[in-house]
Design a protein that fits this description.
- The protein is of the alpha/beta class.
- Helices cover 35% and strands 22% of the residues.
- The strands form 3 sheets. The chain has an 11-stranded mixed β-sheet, sandwiched between helices. A 4-stranded mixed β-sheet has the order 2-1-5-4.
- A hairpin with a 2-residue loop joins strand 9 and strand 10.
- The termini are far apart.
- InterPro entries: GH3 (IPR004993), GH3_C (IPR055378), GH3_M (IPR055377).
- This is GH3 auxin-responsive promoter.
Length: 506
């Protein structure tokens, strides 16, 4: 009998039974007050009059009216460049200990996002909430005695001046609670290996020494690691190596596009739990098994605002116009896309994180990620979001019984006419023409704006299939292999030209 597991599971149930949470609206008001009070004597707080905002009758409204929206470029040019130069009390009291190097999908240069001690504490706190939520998933007691494979970026952070910097997954793994170290794999020594391929090869060699019950990481890179482990041990599935594997915690991207190919590596179904850890903080996690939606963390160092996701409010670079209206969590509606705006204990203020979300349950503050502002394809009015693209890809997988774990798309001009050119990562043998026709039909049915565009200025759809590993090698060529790296799913003209040249030479 799994006595220790029963004790741990019982303790989690007891904690949940005696703990209470404020409703999201009340929790968010407290967070905003705490943020303003803590930062009122910083350079940012003085410049924007936090003291005055705190004395207003409607703090939420006064905050939104006083402070402009910031994307990374704006807040860095005006404020964070001084934080990066080592000055104190700029956008948050003191100095951050770390900078998260964003491994996102836009731009050619890594973003350096402050990570304060308060943010690390908030990430740990949300991690504990997520662990507590596991008690809702009907997992057996012995699961709570198993080890967890956390496949992130290297914990061997770079030292730059007085700061340490690396990807947020590496920073988080380097700051795990002491009591968790016994459960954490691949362990500190292997996690410090910088080279992704070397780290995965080492994991494969050691794999049989561990009793892994849960995996945590980006689906695409987790798949590659599992394939390496299976190949090294000449096994049929990962359950031949880790028979007690029962959970995969997917972070930062939707799992659904990878579901079919991922399941090929398993001997039995496992529980999939979504989380939302970004370079700017731990924003949400799946709290219950009845839904794949995630609960926003409304009581732990992050204040959320929501801009309706409309083409008129989105600039060509993915930023939002300063006159775009904003809503608090008490004003949002179900099933409507919003641009997510955050203010945090790392000194981000009304910050455009770049993601779009939709509420599936307003009362519970549960959301799904629907796409990226930068990856909203609106050439000739097609208004195509990543969420709709991923749904169309899943329909292709079902229709043709193939796996398409990766894709990218761009609007291209051919002889004066616009086309959507898709690159699909698949081993399937379906013709490009059949895939293009099916994609076009699916998107017409799901998106009236796309259908209108196809009847006017959008001439057609082109599909080119390549092997999925081409996408991973593209990331490697751009020094973005492993960790929290996400593939660009919509490319601009310049980036798409580079991609096509890469594919032609692969």
């Amino acid at each position: 009998m799994a006595i220790l597991g029963s004790i741990i599971k019982g303790a989690i149930h007891l904690k949940d039974a005696i703990s209470t949470e404020d409703p999201p609206q009340k929790a968010q008001f407290k967070v905003l007050n705490d943020l303003l009070n803590t930062a009122k004597d910083t350079a940012f707080g003085k410049y924007y009059g936090f003291e005055k905002i705190l004395n207003e009758e409607n703090i939420v409204k006064a905050f939104a009216e006083a402070i402009p929206y910031h994307d990374y470029n704006k807040i860095t040019e005006e404020w964070w460049h001084r934080v990066q130069d080592g000055y104190e009390d700029i956008t948050w009291p003191g100095k951050p200990g770390y900078f998260a190097l964003s491994s996102g999908t836009t731009g050619k240069k890594s973003k350096r996002i402050p990570v304060t001690d308060d943010m690390i504490s908030a990430i740990k706190g949300t991690g504990i909430k997520q662990v507590s939520a596991l008690s809702n998933f009907e997992l057996p007691a012995d699961f709570f005695e198993k080890e967890i494979m956390m496949l992130g970026s290297s914990t061997n952070l770079n030292e730059r001046d007085e700061f340490y910097e690396g990807e947020i997954s590496g920073i988080s793994a380097g700051n795990i609670p002491y009591w968790f170290e016994g459960y954490y794999k691949p362990g500190k020594e292997i996690a410090r290996i910088d080279n992704w391929d070397e780290r995965v090869a080492t994991i494969a060699k050691k794999a049989r020494d561990w009793d892994i019950g849960a995996l945590s990481g980006i689906p695409s890179w987790m798949e590659l690691m599992l394939k390496e482990v299976i190949s090294y041990h000449k096994a049929d599935t990962i359950h031949d190596i880790w028979p007690n594997l029962q959970v995969f915690t997917s972070g930062g991207v939707a799992f659904q596009p990878y579901e079919k190919s991922f399941n090929q590596l398993l001997a039995k179904p496992i529980t999939i739990i979504d989380t939302y850890l970004a370079s700017e903080g731990f924003l949400a996690y799946q709290q219950r098994p009845e839904t794949t939606a995630m609960r926003l963390v409304t009581d732990n160092g992050i204040y959320f605002e929501f801009v309706p996701f409309e083409p008129d409010y989105i600039n060509s670079d993915g930023s939002i116009s300063q006159d775009a209206p904003v809503l608090s969590i008490s004003e949002v509606e179900k099933d409507r896309d919003y641009v997510l705006i955050i203010s945090t204990v790392s000194g981000a203020w009304r910050y455009l994180i770049g993601d779009t979300i939709a509420f599936t349950d307003v009362e519970r503050a549960e959301i799904i990620i629907t796409g990226r502002t930068k990856f909203f394809l609106n050439v000739v009015g097609s208004q195509l979001s990543v969420n709709k693209m991923e749904t169309a890809i899943q329909e292709l997988e079902e229709k043709f019984d193939i796996e398409i774990p990766e894709f990218t798309i761009s609007a291209v001009n051919i002889d004066g006419e616009f086309y959507h050119h898709w690159y699909l990562g698949t081993e399937g043998s379906t013709s490009n023409e059949d895939l293009a026709n099916a994609l076009d039909s699916s998107l017409k049915d799901a998106n009236k704006n796309y259908k209108v565009a196809r009847n006017k200025a959008l001439k057609g759809v082109k599909v080119t299939t390549v092997k999925p590993e081409v996408f991973y090698e593209w990331s490697a060529a751009n020094k973005k292999k492993g960790g929290q790296v996400k593939m660009e799913q919509v490319m601009g003209e310049e980036k798409f030209s580079e991609w096509e040249e890469f594919v032609s030479n692969y």
